[in-house]
Amino acid sequence: MTAILLKGASIVYDTYTGKQLCNLNVYIEDGLIQEITEKSTGFKSDYVVECNKKAVLPGLANTHTHLAMTLFRGLADDLPLREWLEKRIWPLERKLKREHALVASKLGLIELVKAGVTAFADNYFFEDALVEATKSVGLRALVCPPIFDGEFEEHTLSHVSNLVLSQRCDALVKWGFGPHSIYSCKKETLEQIGALSKEHEIRVTIHLAETRWSQVLCEKSFGKRETDLLEECGLLSPRTLASHAVWVTKQEIRKLANYEVSVSFCPVSNMKLAEGGVAPVPELLKEGVRVSFGTDGAASNNSLSVLETIKIGLLLIKHSRWDPTLLKPHEALLIATKNGYEALGFPKHALQTGNAADVITLDLRTPSVICHRSVPLPNRIVYAPVATVDVIVSGKPIMINGKILTIDEEEAKQEFTKALEDF
Amino acid sequence: MTAILLKGASIVYDTYTGKQLCNLNVYIEDGLIQEITEKSTGFKSDYVVECNKKAVLPGLANTHTHLAMTLFRGLADDLPLREWLEKRIWPLERKLKREHALVASKLGLIELVKAGVTAFADNYFFEDALVEATKSVGLRALVCPPIFDGEFEEHTLSHVSNLVLSQRCDALVKWGFGPHSIYSCKKETLEQIGALSKEHEIRVTIHLAETRWSQVLCEKSFGKRETDLLEECGLLSPRTLASHAVWVTKQEIRKLANYEVSVSFCPVSNMKLAEGGVAPVPELLKEGVRVSFGTDGAASNNSLSVLETIKIGLLLIKHSRWDPTLLKPHEALLIATKNGYEALGFPKHALQTGNAADVITLDLRTPSVICHRSVPLPNRIVYAPVATVDVIVSGKPIMINGKILTIDEEEAKQEFTKALEDF
After folding, report:
1. Residue limits of the Amidohydrolase-related domain (chains A, B) (predicted)?
2. What CATH number matches the domain at A4-58+355-404, 1.10.760.10, 3.40.50.300, 3.30.750.24, 2.30.40.10?
């Protein structure tokens, strides 16, 4: 295994504890953080990464995206969700082939790396292509092929469960079930997924209460709220990651908390699709729900940057409650790292000896990051844009000094540009 | 004067007309765009800037900021406006000296340049220091020293009017009056500013209806809305640039339109301070008000990037109206360039022969900018972050290939870091 020395880091900020230290060296070997220390000598390393004017912190998690949708970025802007889906996205998806998904996933992965994301959840077509791309780049992913009761034969429960149950999860890639939503699956399908998830301890991602429409439809069809229906189907558990959760009631929030369900907060996608409402993040957090951040796909954001989503998410919560004191930058970083990793089922990556070495560095030479000494790092990097310089996942160097090492960025861009011609 | 050839630009996008062309050369001399042409030879240029994989467009205007507040970035986060002002900002400002304002303005200018901003309005203490910094960097500025009826002797009307009336405006720097707000000036002061503005044709910037509190106070004190009071004081005219305009009525909007007042929309600052409400941008635009974008100061945003403000502004309008079709990226770029320049009193900088050469280039190698050929440039650069590569103002190269030419960036950062120690 590669050994890496992050040398002379100006700031080491552990999002898990909020502890901020200066001028330290981080030594990484065997996929783990071995030592965080003042001494910079005596280490045998394959890579010495100079970290003067850089901040070292745990990598960010993007807990809701559809990477191959980078192909459709900009093709469905400024539309309501139903029209976005039916008039633009579905017709495009009918042309989608595995080779498109592969190159589109690679481009999405490059964007994630450059935004300091080290782990993500994905839910889209041709997930085996996504896994191929993810393994070539080296990020961690929870991969949940979507399940519909509809026109996509490859995405019926039987196909997806055969696929998922035959895969071997490893330290970097985990497979799960991705029932798209309550409105696109039959109740029996959801019940079967609930049973399989329990029996095989398999994670599940699902769109929950993204719009008023989906809640109203659920009430009309089943006489109950979406969260209650998921409970009935055995789909509320610590293995479930529910995206959006905009239109949930207090009673639903308590239920999500009781069952230890994780929630992905996707403020940019929600604002852009403008279905109204704001996910009740303060109430979710207060009840103990494991909230994290998701960007959603590139066709509905259109950026995959978690840091951008954090800024906009904090602004949205403060603005909608007329309360600027709600949700602080250090809380946002805690939930974007610790909560995100827990929601995806990946190991602890707090900056402490023995933890997973999923580490990023940010550029402290950016003018907007230069602040008074009393300003903590989270405020510097959350409220103004900052560049990611280095990315290490499970001890492996993915990007060093802005250069991606694991795949050829130019080649990936060319392949992607070529694939766009098919649409 | 310098002659510059922007050679082989992949995209030339004129925000004024929405016209997007490919593979063109832009020739700049004597401060003006001389030619936009397919041929790339036959020009005698001091600078040849390779523009393959770059988009050329008119520079952005930031119509509301307080540059020297870069000193206070991060020192007053997550507070309501009155507390932000009284507990944090005012005590800090009492320690502020001219030399601080000079180095802080330089850092702010560097940030503006790197964000593609070529012109801005400023309203803060020690505006002569801001002007010195602005002239050294080479941007265009409308500089409006604040006027208060309060504790700041240098900022009474008599001091400021002596200063402003003794200054010579030039092509790059214009002086104006900056009465802070209705609640921090006496009515007689506002009336005198109105008369001076009319007599000497001098521009005025003022905070208008930023909070419910300021409107309520105005109603209590004068029995009328803020816009009506400004009218009574002779302060509604095409020379006036009103910032925020969140809590205005339909009747006020019509009045702003009738008098051709400009409005600076500052969504990020408004959301972060969370005083509630959303500036009625669709109604303002519909009535014909010249709306543009402002970031506000670094202590209340905390970024000076207009492109970031545009994205968040569009999201906020769509979200708050439950209507994703409102405000499109090309409209946003039109108002961020044309409207901004008009609001500040600077010349037309549409990408056409004979106009002011205030031009920026953006990096089209960014993964998120690579889209299907049918996606127009505005959608690519508004909804996902993109880097500015070159900045030219009035035909002068300010930043070329990411390197600022007019001042020493490292020295400016060091001086700024040193100045922070005084706070």
Report:
1. 56-404
2. 2.30.40.10
